[in-house]
Design a protein that fits this description.
Protein name: LamG domain-containing protein
Distance between the termini: 87 Å
Radius of gyration: 33 Å
Number of helices: 6
Keywords: Disulfide bond, Signal
InterPro entries: ConA-like_dom_sf, LamG-like
Number of strands: 28
Helix content: under 10%
Strand content: 25-35%
Organism: Luteolibacter arcticus
Length: 502
């Protein structure tokens, strides 16, 4: 499967920190592929199943010795699956990777459901503040469900399994069962993943990462980041276990299929999510050997996602050439400086024939050029101040962007032309809009007023002044008259200066 170009831009800091794409098995601590029946079907496939094995939430009534044929792990798929009431059927015949976990519920009851499972060892103490959860889900609600309880009618793919604790949560938020919502930290804000069609496979990844004293959540649906990142104090992330296929107390049971459920004890990059999603699309397991399947994953990694985007990332057939080549495109205010080892010196874009999985580093940097010669770099103008790097006076008020930012402290994007015209018309003495007339020394909090007696022919013969204001001094420098007076900590203060022409 050749990957189409996909631009993924994530928020990040301004310091370039190159992070190479990691092997998906790195940090993988729990993986459930549901290829076997009964308890073996929900045993952890990482590390020989020694830890993080699942336990059916409904005991022996459902799942382990299912009362309903075809329930629980190892579901072999059925186009006419009979639900809990078994009066109508629902199509659960579309595979993802081999067999799937079949989850069914009785919407008339808050407790009746089969197939969902709990992992009692996957809690905050095990996962820490940097972890990721991935699952494929296929919502296929039975047409004969007759419940009216709104809470019961909701369908959950996974949720932390503590009473009144939904530190980790992803499921539907409406009685129609197709609008999905993500939560973090119990009472923190929600991210709406949106309405997703029933009767087809979808992919969700929750990425948790440390952000100071907070834990931040990024949500990906079908390979793309959705919504805004929300965060919660890390101290609030105290969940003790995870449910898959049901809400925190075992109700809100999912009605459909789950597959390729996995948990990592590390955060993910956008390219990690892309690989995970495209593996599922190609019917390849999370831990599948790509080379043995005649595939390879190419990860084009920006040194900092805030600085630019890259093209060419994707899952490819071996010996395919990437259409359009591998390419890097800087964001405004940044420049592309080259490819990292072992691709140093390659052009942009450059052709690449896929022979193995590889990370291709793209290095970006701040644009230190000053295209409009206004004293501000292109990076400062586009990223920090939002001004135009090719126009020294973005608001056309005759005061340069640099002068407004560093001297007058006015908004360089809001014209002060009326005030400038008034000054030019009334101040005179050859003062222009970019002349520095009044400056403030923040170190000693003094103000310096510079005036030029343009019409005087005896400037150099003026007598020294003895200002009446305590602390005020007067001097001459380069034909200018300098008057210096103590400043003030106030943000605004008016001064009146009077003089008499000799």
């Amino acid at each position: 499967m050749n990957a189409s170009r996909l631009s993924l831009i994530a928020l990040a800091g301004f310091l370039p920190i190159l992070t190479a794409h990691a092997d998906l098995n790195s940090g993988l601590i729990a993986y459930y592929n549901f290829q076997e029946e009964g308890t073996a079907g929900i045993a952890n496939k990482v590390g020989g199943g020694a830890t993080h094995n699942g336990t059916y939430g409904s005991g022996t009534t459902f799942g382990v010795t299912p009362a309903i044929a075809g329930s629980g792990a190892g579901f072999v798929l059925n186009a006419a699956y009979a639900g809990v009431e078994a009066t109508t059927t629902t199509d659960r015949s579309i595979p993802l990777v081999g067999k799937a976990l079949n989850v069914a519920k009785d919407d008339a009851s808050a407790t009746a459901g089969s197939g969902w499972f709990n992992v009692p060892t996957l809690g905050a103490s095990t996962l820490g503040s940097n972890f990721a959860i991935s699952a494929w889900f296929y919502l296929a609600p039975d047409a004969d469900n007759g419940g009216t309880d709104v809470a019961t009618l909701r369908d959950y793919v996974f949720e932390s399994a503590d009473l009144d604790n939904f530190d980790v949560s992803f499921g539907t938020n409406d009685t129609n069962g197709n609008t999905f919502v993500s939560w973090i930290g119990g009472t923190s804000g929600a991210q709406v993943a949106g309405t997703l069609a029933t009767g087809q496979w979808h992919h969700v990844v929750h990425v948790f990462s440390q952000a100071g004293t907070n834990t931040a959540l990024s949500v990906y649906i079908n390979g793309a980041k959705v919504g805004a990142t929300v965060s919660t104090p890390t101290a609030n992330m105290n969940f003790t276990s995870l449910n898959f296929g049901a809400g925190r107390t075992g109700f809100r049971v999912f009605d459909g299929m789950l597959d390729e459920v996995a948990v990592w004890n590390r955060s993910f990059t956008a390219n990690d999510v892309t690989e995970l999603h495209q593996r599922g699309q190609a019917s390849l397991a999370v831990n599948a050997n790509l080379a043995a399947a005649g595939k390879a994953f190419v990860s084009v990694d920006p040194s900092d996602p805030a600085m630019g985007v890259t093209f060419g990332t994707g899952l490819y057939n071996l010996n395919d050439e990437i259409s359009g080549g591998v390419e890097a495109s800087p964001n405004p205010g940044y420049i592309f400086t080259g490819w990292g080892s072992p691709f140093t010196g390659q052009s942009n874009p450059f052709p690449h024939v896929v022979t193995a999985s590889v990370s291709i580093p793209a290095i970006f940097a701040q644009d230190s050029a000053d295209d409009d010669s206004d004293g501000l770099t292109n990076y400062q103008e586009e990223v920090i101040y939002g001004t135009f790097p090719n126009d020294a006076d973005s608001d056309d008020d005759l005061v340069s962007d640099r002068a407004e930012i560093q001297n007058t402290q006015t908004n360089p994007l809001v014209s002060q032309r009326e005030a400038v015209d008034y000054i030019i018309a009334n101040l005179g003495n050859g003062v222009g809009p970019n002349d520095t007339v009044l400056t403030r020394n923040q170190a000693n909090n003094t103000l310096t007023l510079k005036l030029t007696g343009q019409s005087s022919t005896t400037l150099t013969t003026w007598s020294g002044l003895t200002p009446s204001t305590p602390g005020t001094t007067a001097s001459q420098s380069g034909g200018d008259f300098l008057l210096q007076t103590p400043g003030t900590a106030d943000t605004k203060r008016f001064f009146q200066v009077k003089g008499q022409e000799p």
